[in-house]
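Cast an eye over this sequence plus tokens and explain the fold to me:
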Amino acid sequence: RGEEREGRGQRGRSGIDSSLQSPGRSCRESGIPGVNQARNEKIARLCEKKMATTQEISLFLLCLHMLACFLEANASRQPSGSSKLRQAAIEMIQQEQYEGAVELYKRIMEKEEAIADDYNNAAVCLQELDNLEESQEMYRQGIKRFYHNEKLHRNLGLMLEERAEKTWREEKKVTEQVDKLNGEAMSHLTFALRLNLAKLWEKHASKVPKQKRIAVGGKKTVAIFYRTRSELELQDGVWGHRQLLEDGYRSDRGEEHLVFLARHMVKQGFNVEVYANMMEQDVGMDKDGVMWRPFYALHAMLPPVWNGTHVLWPKMPVDKQPDVFISLQNLEGAHLFNSSVHEARNITPPVSFLWLKDLLKSPSSLSSSFLGPLHGVYLNSHFHSSMTHSDFPSCLRLMKPAIEQEPPWVIRQTENSNRRFLFAGSPFAGLGILLHEWPKIRSSLLDLSPTLEVLFDFSVHDDDKHKGSPWYADLKRKIHSMTQQEGVIFRPPLSQRKISRAYARSGFCLYPSSLPETRSPDMFKAMLMGCIPVTSRTPYSSLNESCSPFDLGPSPLPFIANASNAQELRFELNPSWVAAWTESVTMAARLEEEELADIRERMVQTASARLSWRSMAGDLAAEWRRDIESGVGGSCGKPVEQVVKRKDPSERPPDEREKEEL
């Protein structure tokens, strides 16, 4: 200010700096010599001061921001006292001192310094102490404070599911309490899955290819979600559709059926999108028109739901919802599109299905609260249906078996040699008992010079699943040593074409399995290639309906609903059953050539017609289009008394029974 007053004194007594009023005027215009230079110097000084002030303010704001970040980071760091208590609690858990650990966690909670893991660990300790009510309340307290914590929701859902199963086994039926527990369990498990998808989507969304849907001609979209509950990490269960052509590939988890289903539904006029944990090179549109996307990309289509704070989460979907949604072997996944937002905003939800490829671990899962939002549950066989408990049987639908009948999956049938035997399947499916019985089989057929070809070994998936298990290492060692027997040919990993040739040149497929398989793809391929099955014919499997009437194994044992003795269930634990199977193998090889040729001809024709993808996909497409138009499917959610029961097969005319069996 002093400088300004001094300047004004030099320029005149008016006190008005005309040069400042009109900084654009020249010295000539002002009429005062030297004013322009003084004005420029003054403006420069003011600009320097203004810039300095702006820099100081920016620096001050930056310091505030850094301080806020520092305080936020330190907010999650607990005081040394809580950290010591937490460490002591973890040490007690490692020593199985669960009561002491719970007390320490409660002390941390009293200080209001607990984190989500404290509530989770305390609840797990209470479960170990069989204090389920208090454990359940501990989970709920944690969820109240940390609602968007995936671990708390998942563990509470699993505990409620276990309680529902225990109650079901005590009551021998689905009571109101069982249904309530199942409903609450599924809501927590579904929300945990949503949180997992959202977390991965936010991190990897930029790598996901955009949807490519064809809306011309009213094409409908089918989305298939394949991610099992046990796969928690991103690296778990990685696979790709190109694996089908890799040497030694064995579809032990149902991926082959999924791949061909998707391809044939494209031929039926659908846009098909598969959401799975794909290899990076397999993501995108394949040559068959199937869109393969990472499983977490489904998050972009999910409708919002009301969370614990009564806020819709997430936002409305970015991508258009599918017309048909199928969750493969994931119960909570089937409920991902179950949201009240659909009705509130007049949005048509997709037709949702659950597709089970294995037997349910918890038989009480298919209660009314679970089935209500679904259009149906697909099962792989009649055996699968008989072993699946449901109060709404009309919700259960049959996913008909089908096998790709084009090269290299199936080749033209060649001359099947009756002295060649084949094993194709999981090593757990009776390979040990087959190699144990092989010396007896070979000695009784020495004049034929019999050979046994073993196609598949223990897979990488088997090694990862049973890593560190002594029984698995012992089984693997024993089987590998027994493959050194005379007459046994242990094949390295083969291409699909070479596997098909092995089926085509073998006379019999030996399969002494006691696994409760819901479908038998290896037997389907054997029958298509003229390789006659000789199985254990266990009633606790789909083998009888898959291979009948061409299975030359022993007479099947009667089905025992409540077998108390393990020998009644396990083929390898019943010596007389094993002896009968071994005798069946030698008798099958001694049959007349004309009789075996007739069996093979009828078997190949029947299997070719029964296992056609064109027929299966056509029926499925018509079923889905009907469900889309009507908006309902089956009678999910209806009481049992409102369901029209199917007639018992024995009450039908003989010609109808034969047609159904065929």
